[in-house]
Specification:
The complex is a heterodimer. By secondary structure, chain A is an alpha/beta fold. Chain A contains ten helices and 13 strands. Chain A has helices at about 15-20, 35-40, 45-50, 75-85, 115-135, 155-165, 175-185, 190-195, 225-235, 255-270, and strands spanning about 5-10, 30-35, 55-60, 90-95, 100, 105-110, 140, 145-150, 170-175, 200-205, 210, 215, 245. In chain A, β11 (about 210) and β12 (about 215) form a beta hairpin. Chain A is globular and about 50 Å long. Chain B is mostly helical. In chain B, α3 (about 50-70) packs across α4 (about 70-95). The chains are: A alpha/beta, B mainly alpha. Chains A and B meet through β5, β6, α5, β8 and α7 of A and α1, β1 and α3 of B. β8 (about 145-150) of chain A pairs antiparallel with β1 of chain B.
Amino acid sequence: MILNSLVGVGLRPAHYPHLENSPQIHSNFFEAISENYMNTEGRPLEMLLKVRSHFPVALHGVSLSIGSDQGIDKEYLKKLKILVERTDPIIVSDHICWSRSPSGNSHDLLPLPITHEALQRVTANIDLVQDFLGRQILLENISYYLRFKENEITETDFVVEMCKKTGCKILLDLNNIHVNSVNHGFDPVSFVNEIPPEIVGQIHLAGPSQEEGYLFDTHASHVPDEVWSLFKYVTDKGLRVPVIVEWDEDIPDFEELEKEVLSARKILLRKDNVVHETPAQ
Amino acid sequence: MPERSSCERTTLSTKRRLSEIQELFFSALRDEPEPFATRIEPIAKLSPQECIRIYSRGYSVRLTDALGETFDATWWILGDEDFFKLSGKYIYSTVSHCYDLSDYGYDFPKFLSRQALAAETPFLPDLARFEWLFKEIFHKPNVKNEIDGGIGFAENSRFIPSSSAKLLSSRYPIYDIWKLRSGPIEELSKIDLSTSQNLLIYKQESQVRVRMLDADEYIFMRALFNGNSISATLDIALEASPNITPDRIRQIFSDIAQAGVLLPKLEEA
């Protein structure tokens, strides 16, 4: 199995009935939201294990809270490890964010101040997680709708330093880069250029929603042209890592979702890749 | 308190910054945006408060969705307006501390019992309690049938309830009400609300099953669930139903065994 040529989709309950009929599937692998399977012995876990018996899976968490100043929730980590042992995933990932504080859990991917202090906290937490799981993790760049006045370094410097210090890799979410570039007014290509390809371990593709005055990361639409262009750009530069298409709201039927998989694969298999092609703005 | 060097002071102040921001951010999610708003820069043409609202709205929506998913029938009974009003009040008063969103709402039934709005519908807290138990059992493993209908067990044998089984007694026919939840609310008028119900909720063959128990069966099962020995359970059952026959007792025990909801309790050495 060549991991770098895998293109798959997020495993969602809406598609369980379709998948149970063992149809012809174009996806090479599935990405499951870790928390949906950590506290259950019910149908969700049965489906995940059934899918796992036929396909590689990646576990993608939303609640590790790697940036929490209070550290990592040990109970969470124990349950994640059990799930990892049960499913033997090809990738274990989460987000560069925080969700848990002593006051409560936000159940959201909240941005961190981009500071040396936050970097120190994040790297300490990553070390703990990787040691406990006994494996490398990937962390995804998030969409965010505010910036902190305390910010000291650039996001890309933060990410690169984080990977350098811990050996973790980046799950490069191209939709989030697109959303942030529109909302915060920066050039997405420059952002991508500042991320060395060797620290990227996976790519996410998805579509946002246009809200009044800003783009919102909803995973509720087709992958937009701007994200496809970024994808072409990074693949033209030679980046070959597993790719997942995410769709979480207004979820279409599975065949419709797989059209995005086929589009992504077509780009990966292009014979006429042009190095350093500039994507459409 | 001893004087600290400037270096120590800087370290302490720096160390406090991340946790302070996280505390302020979390408060902002819960309708206290102001101190946090001074620490941020907005995106696009939004104000800091509007940026914070993106997050606080998301916080509220996620917790409301979690309640709605678990308390589906409660929502159906209340209707959208009252459900959102009550869930909003609950969310404001109850912080989530678990990473698992489906774990949110444990005491929502108790909260409902204290609300004037719910007082018009007295079965509502029990219905919500049933839905919480149903959700819990859904995520449990299947029960395993490990007892054999009573044959071979001594009078002092005790059992422990499977974690995949729960008992619930209500003065109202909550299971009948719950089954109607996908239909029009008018169907509720067909239910005799003066009927009580004793329920066993358990998981078998990957399905959550709900069994309605007769009064004597419920007393018998509750006594066993509470850790009483077979002989003590018989005493309790006979006291509650003096006319219960040996055949009926055998039948009840056989039914309990078939459900597989009790596990033999190993005696301590």
